[in-house]
């Protein structure tokens, strides 16, 4: 009960945040990215954290949602919510096919096979006609029940709702029989199977839940940005970013992925927009014209991927349980 | 014709390695992880399949064919062509 109360409180605070930050679209944009990444890694965490199946192919489900939504709206002009539901169905179909093939593999082999499936999906979308291919799909004006979908606010609340639903499902799963089965599968598959747990059924169940949530986020992202192409929504990079966020925050915990997103997304944004370099210059720590100042100005903006990499290596070396592991005593 | 005349086939760019990363994985798994002969044989097989796919199918779909072979190998013979049976 305590955990669910925390979710409600944090959701309420997050719902009030846009009112406090005012009409600053940049800050709102960053917060939307944070919520999206938090929800994505939480959804991945159901499969990767609790069931222990490290899927490197979640971009496929994200892209399935995004592409289904965009194609249905741009070609048939259907209601965005209907297109979102269609995205879930397509993502679940892909997940079922994937699951029936790759869940026979274990450990590293499962990860490699999930990359292969995601790459097959990406290359197929890139090379068929109706998906717009390498050009991507662009959507013009969009509205739903008089709600202005050209503004950012609806998407902030949309992402927040999906995040809360994801956390709620995680919390429910953790206490349900399915959750215990999944954790048993994570700890030792053979032991779990010997106790009568249907391995492929429960793995597929976790994958389906995870894929459905991921595809909803993909649809929301597509409607929010209103332009998608394969490098934005189906890239391997996206899958890896989802996993890194969860690993750095803490795999297999309720709040780890959220913490990872809250820390990493703004950090990447700060490096990209060079806020860190400018702050150092402003406080006189580094002179603007000195060698270091110029170096930071020129190079820090592109360094967020490098910093991600360094943080990941440090986390793996010193914090194998993620940042959240710092605050928890090992059992 | 001079054989050592170089025709640019691949270019150098920052992300050039990504193309080979998954392909190298595919080859190693096909040949059997840990097997030196397997890596060589797997490389030849994947290279020939890739060229055949781009000739007879389409160069857009050659990577798809390679990944489908990769999945098929993982499913049918997880230890690879020359690998030892063990963890899968």
Description:
Chain A is mainly α. Chain A is built from 15 helices and four strands. Chain A has helices spanning 2-21, 25-50, 58-76, 80-102, 107-127, 153-175, 177-187, 189-194, 199-225, 230-233, 236-249, 256-272, 275-282, 291-299, 304-318, and strands at residues 137-138, 143-144, 147-148, 227-228. In chain A, strand 2 and strand 3 form a beta hairpin. Chain B is mainly alpha-helical and 88 residues long. Chain B has a domain at 36-79. Chain B is 59% helix and 0% strand. Chain B has helices spanning 16-31, 36-56, 62-76. The longest helix of chain B is centred in the middle third of the chain and has 21 residues, at 36-56. The mean pLDDT of chain B is 79. At the A-B interface, helix 5 of A face helix 1 and helix 3 of B.
Structural features:
heterodimer; A: 331 residues; mainly alpha; two-stranded antiparallel ribbon; 15 helices; globular; B: 88 residues; 59% helix; 0% strand
User: What fraction of the residues of chain A are assigned to beta strands by DSSP?
Assistant: under 5%
Query: Gap between N and C termini of chain A, in Å?
Result: 22 Å
Oligomeric status: heterodimer
Could you tell me the number of beta strands of chain B? Answer: 0
Order of helices and strands of chain B: HHH
Mean pLDDT of chain B: 79
Listing every helix as H and every strand as E from the N terminus to the C terminus, the arrangement of chain A reads: HHHHHEEEHHHHEHHHHHH
Gyration radius of chain A (Cα, Å) is 20 Å
Order the strands across the largest sheet of chain A as they lie in space: 1-4
Kindly estimate the percentage of residues of chain B that lie in beta strands according to DSSP: under 5%
Q: Determine the number of helices of chain B (DSSP H or I, runs of at least 4 residues).
A: 3
User: Mean pLDDT of chain A, rounded to whole units?
Assistant: 83
The helix content of chain B, as a percent range, equals 55-70%
Distance between the termini of chain B: 49 Å
The tally of helices of chain A reads 15
Largest sheet of chain B: none
Largest interface, with counts of residues having CB < 8 Å to the other chain, equals:
A-B, 18 and 18 residues
